[in-house]
Amino acid sequence: QVQLVQSGGGLVQAGGSLRLSCTASGRTLSLYAMGWFRQAPGKEREFVATTRWSGANLDYADSMKGRFTIYRDTAKTTVYLQMNSLKPEDTAVYYCAAGSGTRWYGDYGYWGQGTQVTVSS
Questions:
Q1: Residue 22 — left, alpha, or beta (φ > 0 → left; ψ -120 to 50 → alpha)?
Q2: 40-67: pLDDT as tens digits
Q3: SS (H, E, C) 66-99
Q4: Partners of 99 in beta bridges
Q5: N or C: which end of the chain has fewer CB within 10 A?
């Protein structure tokens, strides 16, 4: 059993910053990689970023690269998503997930509850 609990999110103006966090509990010794995805109403789930717990194989979607940073604290079993230079099109529900570290949501077996990020113009 693995549980993922998210925090952060909220309302921010365009150009601002926000940090999301995701803390894992349960059988955390078996975790391999963490990822972030987002989904807006009526749109497909979109890959954001991923990292292995080792810190290797960092990967970002092109629209997020240079603005978003994924990093982890293994001692706290927590992964973060630092979002800078936010744009209105970044508005979505953001989910953290535990899995194999690919860009496909189907490779992740555990999911957080999601947090709303709203970027105003």
A1: beta
A2: 999 999 999 999 999 999 999 999 999 9
A3: CCEEEEEEHHHCEEEEEECCCCHHHCEEEEEEEE
A4: 33, 108
A5: N
